Amino acid sequence: MADEIVIGSHADENDVYRFGKDLDIILLEFEDINISALKKLKQEGKTIICDPNELEIIQDKGKQKMLYKEHAIPTADFFLADDQKEIRKKNVPLPFVLKKRTQGYDGGGVKKINTLHDLSSAWDAPSVGEECIDIKKEYSLIVGRDQSGNTFRYPVVEQHFHNNAHLVHFLVAPIELKQQIQTQIDTIGDQVLNAFSTTGMWAIELFLDADEKVLVNEIAPRVHNSGHHTIEGSATSQFSQFIRLALGLPHGSTKTLTPTVTMNILGPEGKSGAYQAEGLSEVLKTEGIFLHLYGKKTTRPFRKLGHITTTGETTDDCWKKIRSAQQSLQIVVE
Ligand code: ADP
Q1: Nearest Cα to 289, choosing from 312, 264, 272, 305?
Q2: CA of 88 to the centre of ligand 1 (A)
Q3: Looking at residue 106, what is its pLDDT?
Q4: CA dihedral for 176, 180, 181, 187, sign (positive or negative)
Q5: For the chain, which end, N or C, has fewer CB atoms within 10 Å of the first or last residue's CB respectively?
Q6: What does the pLDDT read at residue 166?
Q7: Which residue has its alpha carbon closest to ligand 1 atom 2?
């Protein structure tokens, strides 16, 4: 659909610079992009969202954790280590959650370490080790700031994670929260907007622990999986919002228009290759079902191939529709 396509590596300085050099505004929709090139483009006067200096922090889960500490943002206790040898020397109590500092997305760089044997079979790269949280719920809060400095936030979303894949399977919005939980989340929203002072949008992934304390897991400075329901469910979708920020327009209303449940369509476990999405006519029969297929040619285990959002009178209604869509839809690997 684009007017122009530039082919290159997002990690390569020359390629990223070549991509941006004739543009006025650059929006980033994932984090792993060469920072030197982005900084050079910023120096040349391009508007880049998210700001490259902030992206540099977010690209590195270690730097993110240090930022939280600096701003007193609640997060799981952690340690940093350059390699396995350093982790062993630290003698940290087991279990803990090991995360690659860079380049680990969608659960790919996260591993629960129950034993030293688990550690041996993990990567040997700079990592963050985190206290293992007894997670009761996972939420997401999307906040942002437009070019005039006005801030906004979407209502909190509940994320249901896939049992085996460490990635989001379902989203529910809106949700009802106890006042004391909502208050903690509101404070975190303020703190994050304070920590990131530029124009942008930040999806804050949150844990609720067994003591009903809210902790920040990580932040994505962009449109996010946890905002997909805003396309049908909110007065302004996260995508229009991002474009408004880029163009210097006022941010739009984040009001909820209807209950939604969203399901990520994931590639089947253990299978890779070309695929067909079958059962679509059955899925599409129901009112209030919105199918988004991303047009990816091949699947991998748990690859995000699309999503379905359901709208309805109540959240229960939406769940019924999504469960029936889940039954009908088959990803068949050729
Ligand atoms: P990614 O960047 O790959 O999305 P995350 O850091 O969000 O990785 O972790 C993926 C999932 O792993 C989380 O959503 C959560 O379910 C689980 N997880 C991450 N950190 C912890 C932790 N400290 N304690 C318990 N579970 C965790």
Answers
A1: 312
A2: 22
A3: 64
A4: positive
A5: N
A6: 78
A7: 105
| Residue 162 CA: distances (Å) to CA of 111, 168, 235 | 15, 6, 29
| DSSP letter assigned to residue 95 | P
Continuous segment of H or E residues that includes residue 153: strand 151-153
Crossing angle of helices 13-20 and 35-43, in 10° steps, is 30
Ligand 1 pocket check for 166: Cβ under 6 Å:
yes
pLDDT tens-digit readout, 136-172:
999 999 999 999 999 999 999 999 998 878 789 999 9
**Percent of the chain with pLDDT strictly greater than 90:** 93
pLDDT of residue 107: 65
- For a substitution probing ligand 1, which of 30, 97, 111, 113 has the most ligand atoms within 8 Å of its CB? 97
Please report the pLDDT score of residue 2 as a whole number: 84
Pocket test for ligand 1, best of 113, 211, 217, 302 (most atoms within 8 A of CB): 217
Q: Which parts of the chain have pLDDT scores under 50?
A: none
> For tokens 């007017």, what's the residue?
3
Cα 3 to ligand 1 centroid, rounded to whole Å: 37
- To the nearest 10°, report the CA torsion of 245, 249, 250, 252: -70
